Amino acid sequence: ARLAAEQGREVFAVPGSITSFKSMGTHRLIKQGAKLVEHVDDIVQELNISPPLPSVDTKEKPTISLTPEEKQIIDELSPYPVHIDKLVRHLSLSASRVSSVLLQLELKGLVTQSPGKLFARCEP
Q1: φ and ψ of 61, to 5 deg
Q2: In which domain, by residue range, is 37 found?
Q3: What's 87's domain CATH number?
């Protein structure tokens, strides 16, 4: 804090409980002229920082074409992981075919695999 003051830099301090020994340092800084910070907006305002404007995505996301099998598996998945065996039981596809289609969906960025052969649909 002393070096910052010597270099003309702002010093900020977040106050703590008046009954806590751990707050003595920040309270001392505030007494010595540090800027009191109760919220991040205090720093933003003091430093005259403009928050970044939200970016507007004007480009439409490319449409990914799906095979009927890929669509069938995507429709069966949710954002919550499902074991591959459960997918095989619910679909009229072989285990090897489900595995192959899941790999294709992973490569397209539509499905994620977790350890234990658990698969989930990626949220847009």
Answers
A1: -70, 140
A2: 2-46
A3: 1.10.10.10
